[in-house]
Amino acid sequence: MKMIRRIAKTGPRFWVNLPPISLQVQLTFGIVAFAVVGLGGVTAWTSWNIRQLLVEQHKEKLAEFAQQFSHDVKLYSEMMPREVAVQRVIDKPSEKKSLVWVKNRAGEIIAESVNLRQDIQPNLRNALISYSNMPKKPGVSKIDGRYWVLCGGDFTIGSYNFGKLYMVNDITSEYKIFITLLYRLVFASLFAMILLVSAIAWYIRRSLLPLQQVSRMAATISAAELSDYRLTLERAPSEVEQLANTCNKMLDRLADAWEQQRQFVGNVSHELRTPLTIVHGYLQSTLRRGENLTQLQREGLETASGEAERTIRLLQDLLELARADHGTLHLQLEPIIVNDLMAEVVEMAQSFSRGRIKLEKIDGFLEIKADKNRLKQVLLNLIDNALKYSQADTPILLKADRHKNRVDIAVCDRGPGIPLSHQSRIFERFYRVDEARTRAGGTGLGLAIVKTLVEGMGGTVGVRSQLGEGSTFIVCFPDYL
To answer: Could you tell me the domains of the chain?
Structure first.
């Protein structure tokens, strides 16, 4: 039973279905959220305390005044009529800071402060007297654009019920100070939050730079550099250094495995090519001298010879790739006239293409620097690929032209085309688009060899294709002229 090791998922379970986001974003938002909540809580607590300091003292004074008022009225009532006693207490100098009025049980005012009669505008006085939400305990309300601490309730001395007693203090100036302080505190908190968020984002980004550096360095490592490339960091945190060391150890293991694989492929290909070449030679010799062979025997020998030849080509391709991987693929770069080279390639391809290769007229002379024999091999591989996947009666077009500082050589066919999702992978080793291409006789190495040879000569190769309209393989080299 095959065992598969899985990497454990980390993170809260409620994030499982969320799209992944960067560590920098997670840390920034998380720390900023905690900082905002904390700073907002401090701001709210400070605002509440300031309000308490500005308002609560008025509430306490009003509550003390109500208690003292009842006591004074009781004393004065022993010496004069009750209504007169109430008015006398209201007119005491110590009580003139508050607005006080008393209503009898019929709702008529029987006593009120002098300042309520003289200092308050009539409309404001009427608004205060007619205010219907008067609380029993001192509270803050906004009446006619001003802020007041007010309270009201039943007024009874002994067994005698006067009616209702109302007391009001104007705290507009204090409350405006509170609002001003609150606005300043909110703006200061917002400014502090912006500075805090900026500082946190900068610090987190700076802290994660070593990880980004590791990612960039790892992204540039190719298979050919596994044994030489190592991740090196300066002044990185210990956790990041540990990650880099772990990656370097992994690169060592990958380099060893890759080297063993290349050696195995090269050795096997080399060892098998010689006996298969001998077998293929004997089969061809037997077919040439086999006048007494029956038709069935001849067909069997021809099939065996064809498979041996295909296997030899496959081993040859593997050897070419193994040499390229080991850096032992020798290329002799020299100036080449593209016009003459393409004429030679077309002439060579006519023997197996049955006249289907067409060379488009080239304007002027095109010159590049490449290995002539290897470039012929590249073009013949592309032509062979085009012939395999095109209808037998459709032509294969070769053309070349100059674009700015480069020369483009194109091989065009009218085959079924290559899906867009496969175009980026067709130059990989042993990659085939579908089973139809496998039945066409391909090994999946032809285009990989084309890419290896072209890039070894300093060029590039690509493909443009649409389904049902054919494919165009383009080999590009710097213009040598």
So the answer is: 26-179 (3.30.450.20), 238-326 (1.10.287.130), 334-478 (3.30.565.10)
d(CA 89, CA 81): 12
Pairing of strands 357-359, 396-403: parallel
Q: What is the pLDDT of residue 13?
A: 46
Residue 469: CB partners within 8 Å, gap ≥ 6?
414, 417
Residue range 240-272, pLDDT digits in tens: 777 778 888 887 788 777 677 667 666 666 666
pTM of the model as a whole:
0.48
Gap between the Cα atoms of 183 and 174, Å rounded: 14
Q: How far apart are CA 112 and CA 86, in angstroms?
A: 9
pLDDT tens digit sequence for 207-248: 777 777 777 777 777 666 666 667 777 777 777 777 778 888
Residues 16-53: tens digit of each pLDDT: 444 556 677 777 778 878 877 887 888 888 877 777 77
CA 158 vs. chain centroid, Å, equals 79
